[in-house]
Design a protein that fits this description.
Mean pLDDT: 88
Number of strands: 20
Helix content: 25-40%
Oligomer: single chain
Strand order of the largest sheet: 4-3-5-6-7-8-9-14-13
Low-confidence stretches: 443-448
Number of helices: 15
Structural class: alpha/beta
Distance between the termini: 54 Å
């Protein structure tokens, strides 16, 4: 099965997750302190962290430690991990092969890559202990949208699950799906991954053929598919919708639930920590603070009080000891709520302003409207164009402008433009004009992250 699955650790993690879920704030605080101390000790095995932590006392926790960026860790990749098997060249080679998606690296690690939403792609390696924690959090803290249905089928054995996303990269959600197919006999017969890079009519046809009962995807994709259901083209009967990876507003939630006639559960996760937060039955987003720490800070790196939205947030992953993340800077804007949730959970409530790119609507050669998912566009530019420092702006009904940072030369610009044009042609948009330019400043969304797909300039 591979070293990424340890039944004993998985069982222990599950029992602990249950205990904290129904425990007291004092138990939560105890777990945080114990796990932070264990992480800081384990980090000494990595040369990068050994130098960074020199002179730091365990009793001080995170106080006084400088934050770290993705760019810094990627540059120090070979010194960042505490295991000699984790080195940039072999990990990159492994992740470059789609055949390895969901397979263990070096027989004992799971690898996933992040998108370049901050201008820098990332590679993240997890061992069996970290995967056991993520599995327990994903399995036990997802809200029971239909309690009776889940009581009768707690493992979703009777469900047909459709995942709509990027299926050809080592992204956390795709790797997780492929890993489950490998580890759980029969799961592949109940779950199907649908590539959101295919034309929308083909995607709708594939979903109609599968007839799923659960849809797992990004909010923008769920909203787009809700429109197809309203129009009568998508004919599926869903029991639940699971979303994550983007900001979900109340209006979008209401439209998706109304179109599909079922409840929706949203979650918050990242490549740096798969299961950051899940909604409770009251709709509040609870941080899994027994295994991850989030510190909202202002632009100068000063902590903000509860109830105040930070300009950025520092993440500390308490589960991953082989590639430690300690005060790692995320671009999301997070608010730690001051009041506990009415559901009684000891886990703190957060609100998140994350990625909020636009769905583009372009005009095809025959005047038809074609809607494009922002994550599909960014995936094409990253995976095929091999550019990460960019912004795609719609400038007309059949016109796009690809803005590229100064790091990209003329060869990279031409490659990205052609990759985008080829994909647009496959969507029936061969007549769409794509211009390019070099820029130094970007549109930013409310999240503080650069908006990578922008429809604001469309005419």
């Amino acid at each position: 099965m591979g070293g990424d699955l340890d039944p004993w650790r998985t069982t222990a993690a599950a029992l602990d997750v249950l205990a904290v879920s129904h425990g007291t704030p004092a138990l939560l605080l105890q777990r945080q302190r114990e796990r932070l101390a264990a992480l800081l000790r384990a980090a000494q095995a990595a040369p990068f962290w050994r130098e960074r932590l020199r002179g730091h006392r365990l009793d001080d926790g995170l106080a006084g430690l400088r934050p770290v960026s993705k760019a810094e860790l990627m540059e120090q990749f070979d010194r960042w991990a505490g295991d000699a098997a984790i080195r940039r060249d072999p990990v990159q080679a492994f992740a470059a092969d789609p055949a390895h998606i969901g397979q263990p690296f070096a027989g004992r690690f799971i690898v996933w890559e992040s998108s370049g939403s901050s201008g820098e792609p990332g590679l993240f390696v997890q061992d069996g202990a970290a995967m056991a924690v993520y599995d327990a959090l994903e399995g036990l803290r997802r809200p029971p949208l239909q309690p009776l249905r889940r009581w009768l089928d707690p493992c979703c054995l009777a469900e047909r699950i459709a995942f709509v996303g990027a299926t050809s990269g080592h992204f956390a959600s795709t790797v997780t799906l492929r890993r489950l197919e490998r580890l759980q006999p029969g799961f592949a017969q109940r779950a199907c991954a649908h590539d959101f890079l295919q034309p929308l009519p083909a995607l709708v046809a594939a979903l109609n053929a599968q007839s799923p009962t659960v849809l797992a995807t990004y909010p923008s994709a769920a909203l787009l598919l809700a429109g197809e259901a309203r129009a009568g083209r998508l004919r599926v009967t869903l029991a639940e919708v699971w979303t994550g990876g983007e900001t979900l507003g109340p209006a979008a939630r209401a439209e998706i639930e109304a179109a599909f006639g079922c409840p929706l559960a949203n979650s918050y996760g990242a490549s740096e920590f798969l299961a950051l937060a899940s909604e409770c039955a009251h709709g509040a987003l609870h941080l899994n603070a027994d295994w991850v720490l989030l510190e909202p800070v202002d632009a100068a790196g000063r902590p903000v009080p509860p109830g105040t939205c930070g300009e950025k947030v520092w993440l500390t992953n308490l589960a991953n000891h082989v590639q430690p993340l300690i005060r790692y800077e995320l671009g999301d804007r997070v608010t730690l709520q001051a009041e506990p949730c009415a559901c009684g959970s000891p886990l703190p409530v957060i609100s998140v302003q994350g990625r909020s790119d636009d769905v583009l609507e372009l005009r095809g050669a025959r005047g038809e409207r074609v809607r494009l998912l922002p994550l599909a566009l960014t995936t094409i530019l990253e995976e095929h164009g091999r550019v990460f420092d960019f912004q795609l702006v719609q400038t007309g009904a059949a016109a796009l402008r690809l803005d590229l940072g100064a790091v990209h030369d003329a060869v990279a610009t031409a490659r990205a433009r052609e990759a985008l044009r080829a994909w647009l042609a496959a969507q029936g948009l061969a007549a769409v004009r794509v211009s390019t330019r070099r820029v130094e400043t970007w549109h930013s969304g409310r999240s503080g992250k650069r908006r990578r797909v922008v429809a604001a300039e469309a005419r």
